[in-house]
Amino acid sequence: MKALLFAQYGDPNVLTVGDVPEPHAGPGEIRIAVRAAGVSPGDDAIRSGAWRDRVPLALPYVVGLDAAGVVDEVGDGVHGVRVGDEVFGLRFRGNTTAEYAVLDAWAHKPGNMRWPQAGGAATGIETAVRALDVLGVHSGTTLLLDGAGGGVGAVARGARVIGTASTPNHPFLEELGAIPIEYGPGLPERIQRVTGHPVDSAVDIAGRGSVEELVRITGDANAVLTLVNPAAENQGVRLLRFDPAADNSAALEYGAELVAAGRLAVHVAHAYPMDEGPAAHTRVASRHTRGKIVITVP
Ligand SMILES: NC(=O)c1ccc[n+]([C@@H]2O[C@H](COP(=O)([O-])OP(=O)(O)OC[C@H]3O[C@@H](n4cnc5c(N)ncnc54)[C@H](OP(=O)(O)O)[C@@H]3O)[C@@H](O)[C@H]2O)c1
């Protein structure tokens, strides 16, 4: 089958479309005929070699951590999904940007979600739900997202959301229902001036050194979560860790319900065909993506 892969670490130009053997669904897994796959900052880190020690790989390696498509194999012990169902989901070890991909966690694709949106939905939804759970975010609280314009930003559970982004992305955040504010030094004073709201919890999504200010804003290191910066744990801030043993499908099903109800939309900044994989990775590596970048298959 055709897949987007790299045989050596490096810049996005190491990506090529090549032929690899088809994968098959093992126990607890499903296989899909892929229609679209997401490109995440994690894919960029894997391809560049930045995570070489953390995630040892056998090369060549097929990129992609999430995808959407039509189920064509159902592994032993899997219930609630059948061949022919349309789903989106995650593959923890990657390999989703190909004609066929195996998924570890999935949800049915809502009818109002198009393939590109579904292909790029799973990592952002799963991360956002996990972050909201860890922080105990609920209706009536105020949540600050530092770096809200990318793939992980979230407005849900009735929380008031303040999101940081550069000025051109403020209308985008407003459309999502968040109060936009400029990122960078002086954030506590800006929030006080612009919103006047006390902030109950905060998420460091962008990982650009704001953790100290986020602790000042919430007044409690335990109310701050970082997605990116392990060093922040020295200040009592929690690092969001992925747990493959958790019920990750439940998070995706929750996201799918929000999408079906019109309460969550996955914004796709650009959809590239597979042979433009280097351009897709270059765009994600810029770290100024608005929403998600996806690759459509075939
Ligand atoms: N821990 C976990 O389990 C986990 C899971 C998923 C993702 N992650 C990590 O989460 C991070 C975010 O991912 P993402 O998909 O949202 O994409 P991303 O490409 O990192 O986010 C892009 C957004 O960051 C904003 N940004 C750029 N510079 C900033 C700054 N100095 N301060 C605040 N915001 C800034 C950009 O806004 P402008 O364009 O407006 O400048 C853009 O909207 C990645 O590093 C990823 O690896 C962690």
Automatic annotation (TrEMBL):
Signal sequence region: none
InterPro entries: ADH-like_N, ER, GroES-like_sf, NAD(P)-bd_dom_sf, Zinc-ADH_QOR/CCCR
Domain Enoyl reductase (ER): 10-295
A Pfam family of this chain: ADH_zinc_N_2
GO molecular function terms attached to this record: oxidoreductase activity
Gene3D superfamilies: Medium-chain alcohol dehydrogenases, catalytic domain, NAD(P)-binding Rossmann-like Domain
Keywords tagged on the record: NADP
NADP keyword on record: yes
Protein name: Oxidoreductase
